[in-house]
Write a structure and sequence with these properties.
It is a single chain. The chain is α/β, with parallel strands linked by helices. It has three domains: about 80 residues, Four Helix Bundle (Hemerythrin (Met), subunit A); about 190 residues, 3-Layer(aba) Sandwich (Rossmann fold); about 160 residues, Signal recognition particle, SRP54 subunit, M-domain (434 Repressor (Amino-terminal Domain), Orthogonal Bundle), CATH 1.10.260. Helix content is about 55%, strand content about 10%. It has 20 helices and eight strands. It has an eight-stranded mixed β-sheet with strand order 3-2-4-1-5-6-7-8, sandwiched between helices. Strand 7 and strand 8 form a beta hairpin. Bound molecules: guanosine-5'-diphosphate (GDP) and magnesium ion. Guanosine-5'-diphosphate binds next to helix 5.
Length: about 450
């Protein structure tokens, strides 16, 4: 979802004239991306209409930047889509203990997230506890027990009883007596037949009357999110969503669908396997990531100031950008030298830990600085630069990949105090980027991306 919308915006920003047609095309692509992500047609139509309203209103004012307005409109519309308009139930330490039931398919992260959730409220002064009502998966109780012990949370379960409803009811009763004020019920995510799973969820909910049912989804399910969420919503009244595995490569586009299907908000995101890897959901960074924009609010400026100072200036004053590589890119068919890669690295380091925004510089995001690995990425870049410091001018300015033969590689390794394999890794990276950049072309005016617009 993110990448297709970003592509649409980038194309929009490189269009020389932004007219009705360019806007229409851009909106159509955004629409298609949303539909492909299984967001309901009604919702998508609403988004499209709203964007049109905002944009056409603003285009009336002279001197406004339409591309930027569209970008903002898409951003705020996606934020709005993630806001179902009513907040989720929040556990209270009132007279009666809160009951929260977790549902979701097997592997989505329920058991792990239950414990994280308990721990979160434990820190807030609650006395949470866990019930294992998953009798389908062998070892389910052991897993919950282990997590609960790690998080120092009381728990209830049974190796003998096979009826999840009975366990849930008994668990509530027992844990209430023990003085727990937040009882969390973990459930099964699989059954011999799907219908049986939903029937089981309905029965557990009916017997335990949870204050909140949380639908847990894996960030990577994408298109399947709507169907899954809807299926659960039809059997139990889902009131909140948690998106897990946000530390992976998926950026959680499916959350939009889950929110649409359940009409409930995302409340937390899971960011790792560890008990502490649970974050309160924050819509703006989430949407930024979805759109591949990094933290838009704070970072657009940084990008403009640091990465593209010359290009941005050139855009205003019709001058040649003095970022040589970008200038060359404008010509197309760029032959990347090691020296220009070195200079690009310098730019990147100046930007600090905002690797996600490197999508502006093609090739750098995906492998060199993968999402969530800015530190590693920076360390790698510094290592590469140290290696390049031991290269001769001729080597740095060469565009012949064969120049760096065995004996040169060994010499550079020795000179930089690195191993031969490190030098080779750097050269591999160079080859990969050189290949990619040779195919790139950006417009002469330096309008490489919507992010450079003001
Ligand atoms: P369940 O079948 O829904 O109960 O899912 P589990 O809680 O057993 O989780 C399935 C797998 O996903 C386990 O290996 C978890 O450690 C892992 N997992 C859960 N949440 C996260 C997360 O936020 N990040 C990562 N990386 N792994 C997670
Ligand atoms: Mg489980």
């Amino acid at each position: 979802l993110g990448s297709s919308i970003t592509r649409a915006l980038v194309r929009m920003s490189s269009a020389t004239v932004v007219d009705e047609k360019a806007l229409g095309d851009c909106l159509n692509e955004i629409t298609r991306a949303l539909l492909q992500s299984d967001v309901r047609f009604e919702t998508v139509r609403g988004v499209q209409a709203n964007i049109r309203n905002i944009v056409s209103l603003d285009t009336l004012a002279a001197g406004t930047n339409k591309r930027r307005i569209i970008q903002r409109a898409v951003f705020s519309e996606l934020c709005a889509m993630l806001d179902p308009g009513k907040p989720a139930f929040v556990p209270t330490k009132a007279n009666k203990p809160s009951v929260v039931m977790f549902v979701g398919l097997q592997g989505s992260g329920k058991t792990t997230t239950c414990a994280k959730y308990a721990r979160h409220y434990h820190r807030k002064g609650f006395r949470p506890s866990l019930v294992c009502a998953d009798t389908f998966r062998a070892g389910a109780f052991d897993q919950l027990k282990q997590n609960a012990t790690k998080a120092r949370i009381p728990f209830y379960g049974s190796y003998m009883e096979s009826d999840p409803v009975k366990i849930a009811v008994k668990g509530l009763e027992t844990l209430r007596k023990e003085g727990s004020d937040l009882i969390i019920i973990d459930t099964s995510g699989r059954h011999k037949q799907e219908a049986a799973l939903f029937e089981e969820m309905r029965q557990v909910a009916q017997a335990t009357k949870p204050d909140l049912v949380i639908f847990v989804m894996d960030a990577s399910i994408g298109q399947a999110a709507f169907g899954q969420a809807q299926a659960f919503k039809q059997s139990v009244s889902v009131g909140a969503v948690i998106v897990t595995k946000m530390d992976g490569h998926a950026n959680g586009g499916g959350a939009l669908s889950a929110v649409a299907a359940t009409k409930s908000p995302v409340i937390f995101i899971g960011t790792g396997e560890h008990m502490d890897n649970l974050e309160v959901f924050d819509v703006k960074p989430f949407v930024s990531r979805l759109l591949g924009m990094g933290d838009v609010a704070g970072l657009i400026h940084k990008i403009q100031d640091v990465v593209m100072p010359a290009a941005a200036a050139a855009d205003d004053q019709h001058q040649q950008p003095d970022n040589q590589l970008l200038a060359q890119l404008a010509q197309g068919g760029t032959l990347l030298t090691l020296r220009s890669m070195y200079e690009q690295f310098q730019y990147l380091l100046k930007m600090g830990p905002i690797g996600q925004l490197l999508s502006m510089l093609p090739g750098f995001t995906s492998e060199l600085m993968a999402k969530g690995q800015d530190k590693e990425g920076q360390a790698k870049i510094k290592r590469y630069m140290t290696i390049m410091d031991s290269m001769t001018d001729a080597e740095l300015d060469s565009t012949n990949p064969k120049l760096m033969n065995e004996s040169r590689v060994i010499r550079v390794a020795r000179g930089s105090g690195r191993q031969v394999k490190d030098v080779r890794a750097m050269l591999e990276e160079y080859k990969r980027l050189a290949k990619m950049w040779s195919k790139m072309k950006i417009p002469k005016n330096g309008k490489m991306s919507h992010l450079t617009q003001n």
